[in-house]
Amino acid sequence: MEKKKLEQFKKRLEERQQLLRKTVSRTVQDGRSADEEAAQDIADKAANSYTKEFLFHQSTSERQLLQLVEEALTRIREGSFGECVNCGNEVNAKRLEAVPWTRYCIACQEKAEKGLMEEANT
Ligand SMILES: [Zn+2]
Known about the structure:
By secondary structure, the chain is mainly α.
C-alpha cells in the first residue's frame, strides 16, 4: 500500500480510537451514576436496570470496536495493514475505505459470520 494512503488510514483510525476511548469511559461513568440513582429511589429500579443494561451493551460493542481499531493500528505499525488476518489476501480497497478496522477479506468475513472459522471468536 502507498505510504500516503497508509498515513490517511492511520489518521482516521487514530481519530476513531480517541473518540471511542472517550465514549467508552463516559459510558462507564453513566453506568455508575445510574447505580447511585437506583439507591436513591427504589421505585425507579426497574427502569434503572433497563438503562444500565442498555449502557452495558452499548459500551460492550464500542469496546469491541475500539479493540478492532487498535488492532488495525498495530497492523499499520507491523506493515500488514490491508491484508486479511486469516488468509493474507489483500482486503478490497473499497471495503477498507468503508471499514478501515476490518480484519478479514469479504470471503473470510462471510466465513466468520457463519461461524465457519475456527479462530473467529477468539
Ligand atoms: Zn481472507
